[in-house]
């Protein structure tokens, strides 16, 4: 049963298929999360990919850390955004170009069938050599130090994960994945979430629609978690 991560509609999402996976414990980023939290997030990412795949959609996943004004801490968000499957190749190409050009990061690019496990991504980051990062090991998961982006295509389309660690003092452009997706969708006005906020009644309708879409997949996930032999 999923108890450590909850799913919400993204306020000001790129499109109606834009959701958030949020640790209930308000972690600063996934690097600080206990392994069970990362594993649960990974299972829910697979649910999101499956639901989008059934609709002919690919899925873009990326992590973004958001500063909380009241507590003055960071709160991580894992974004899951469905997009038309036929745009997968264009999105992968644009994402690879922009991350290499703009991030100032060491880059790992791994191709895979559908999705790369989140624990594996965190493992890659945790085992990064300090001299590659220009940081001491205890600073590996500072909020401005790393980024990852996973693109899951539909059948016959590529899937890949990009992982990077920045040495730049200004940190990571955590909106980069959204920027690239918005331009790939030919929706440049949706780069910034504040330009995309919808009225509360529309947000409620979107949340109910998401709940309906996810209900069967989440039920299967709960059953498999309670009985691993299923």
UniProtKB/TrEMBL annotation:
Origin species: Gregarina niphandrodes (Septate eugregarine)
Q: Where is the Cwf19-like C-terminal domain?
A: 4-87
Single GO biological process annotation from the record: mRNA splicing, via spliceosome
Its cellular-component GO annotations read: post-mRNA release spliceosomal complex
- List the protein's name: CwfJ carboxy-terminal protein 1, related protein
Q: Which PANTHER family match?
A: CWF19, CELL CYCLE CONTROL PROTEIN, CWF19-LIKE PROTEIN 1
Q: One Pfam family name from the record?
A: CwfJ_C_1
Molecular-function GO terms, alphabetical:
RNA lariat debranching enzyme activator activity
InterPro entries for this protein: Cwf19-like, Cwf19-like_C_dom-1
């Amino acid at each position: 049963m999923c108890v450590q991560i909850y799913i919400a509609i993204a306020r000001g999402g790129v499109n109606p298929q834009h959701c958030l996976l949020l640790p209930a414990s308000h972690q600063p980023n996934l690097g600080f999360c206990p392994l069970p939290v990362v594993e649960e997030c990974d299972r829910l990412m697979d649910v999101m990919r499956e639901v989008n795949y059934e609709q002919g959609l690919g899925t873009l996943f990326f992590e973004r850390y958001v500063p909380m004004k009241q507590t003055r801490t960071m709160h991580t968000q894992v974004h899951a955004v469905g997009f038309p499957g036929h745009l997968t190749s264009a999105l992968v190409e644009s994402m690879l170009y922009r991350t290499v050009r703009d991030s100032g990061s060491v880059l790992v690019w791994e191709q895979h069938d559908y999705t790369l496990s989140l624990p594996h991504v965190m493992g890659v980051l945790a085992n990064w050599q300090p001299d590659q990062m220009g940081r001491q090991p205890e600073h590996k998961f500072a909020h401005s130090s790393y980024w990852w982006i996973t693109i899951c295509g539909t059948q016959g389309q590529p899937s890949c994960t990009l992982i990077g660690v920045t040495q730049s003092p200004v940190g990571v452009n955590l909106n980069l994945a959204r920027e690239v997706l918005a331009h790939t969708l030919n929706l440049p006005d949706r780069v910034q979430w504040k330009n995309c906020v919808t009225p509360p009644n529309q947000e409620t309708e979107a949340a109910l629609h998401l709940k309906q879409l996810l209900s069967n997949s989440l039920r299967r996930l709960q059953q498999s978690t309670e009985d691993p032999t299923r």
